[in-house]
Amino acid sequence: MNIGDVSKRAGLPPKTIRYYEDIGLVTPLRDPNGYRSFRGSDMHKLAFLSRARALGFTIEDCRNLLALWDDKDRASADVRAIAKEHLTQIESKIADLQDIRKTLTHLVKECAGDDRPDCPILQTLENISKQ
Amino acid sequence: MNIGDVSKRAGLPPKTIRYYEDIGLVTPLRDPNGYRSFRGSDMHKLAFLSRARALGFTIEDCRNLLALWDDKDRASADVRAIAKEHLTQIESKIADLQDIRKTLTHLVKECAGDDRPDCPILQTLENISKQ
DNA sequence: CCTTGACCTTCCACCTGCTGGAACCTCTAT
DNA sequence: ATAGAGGTTCCAGCAGGTGGAAGGTCAAGG
């Protein structure tokens, strides 16, 4: 399969796939004309990457997950540890964003949003402790 | 004030402050010895930046907010539009992360996390539509 | 047979928002 | 005089790609 087909099937832009080859996540073969030739296993890996990235795993996480995936003797605890650590990070990110949302919602509600220059948003950013 | 003092007061690393000068967000004066000399207004701007960045506004948003802040005739609607757009983005990010959390929580729960190689996490990443 | 257009290739620069380090200068206290 | 804690500049690099230029290749239509 050429890169275009793989791109459509895996849902990753060709540029991203080339980048993944660059950093050693996939190693497709080459046709005599120099085109990349993706095997089923490459396709499989890229689809895996696409999903793992969509779940917010870092590239390094993905590299580890792929290694574990290749390793038939892996302990599921290893995979679970990666996922769990990632989950913790996701949860703290959600909490941060919820804090931010709260503040912003408050600010947007307070602001008249008309032609007058009085703006509680700027006042608050000026000195957030006064809110 | 020297950069160290400003750094402590604004809660921004000196490197970041120099970077903000580089990209034109602040323009401190210079002492004869070449040291940056921050006026009250610079300090003010940096504190503003520190807060706005903590709320997740992009640098470009901050640039716009600072311009509006400087503009006594601004319409509060302009500021509100920026904040509202940002709020929308925050909310969609939260929703994305909550989706991810749901999937991950499910996966971590399913996974035995022992020495056996059976791992529903990898199985799912292999073909997420089967979950 | 030639051309057109859609592919593919490589390489290099750029994006955001900093951060680290090297090499050097300056001020203050002892 | 010297040590140490500031300050300065510049250059490189992080993640995770994206954009564009310059060129090679392939299949279809005239």
TrEMBL record, chains A, B:
Compartment annotation: Cytoplasm
UniProt-listed SMART domains: HTH_MERR (SM00422)
Keyword Transcription regulation included in the entry's annotation: yes
InterPro entries xref list: CueR, DNA-bd_dom_put_sf, MerR-type_HTH_dom, MerR_fam, Tscrpt_reg_MerR_DNA-bd
Residue ranges of every copy of the HTH merR-type domain listed in the record: 1-68
GO annotation terms (biological process): positive regulation of DNA-templated transcription
Gene Ontology CC: cytoplasm
Alphabetic keyword roster: Cytoplasm, DNA-binding, Transcription, Transcription regulation
NCBIfam families: CueR
Alphabetized PANTHER family for the sequence: HEAVY METAL-DEPENDENT TRANSCRIPTIONAL REGULATOR HI_0293-RELATED, REDOX-CYCLING DRUG-SENSING TRANSCRIPTIONAL ACTIVATOR SOXR
Protein name per UniProt: Cu(I)-responsive transcriptional regulator
Record organism: Sulfitobacter geojensis
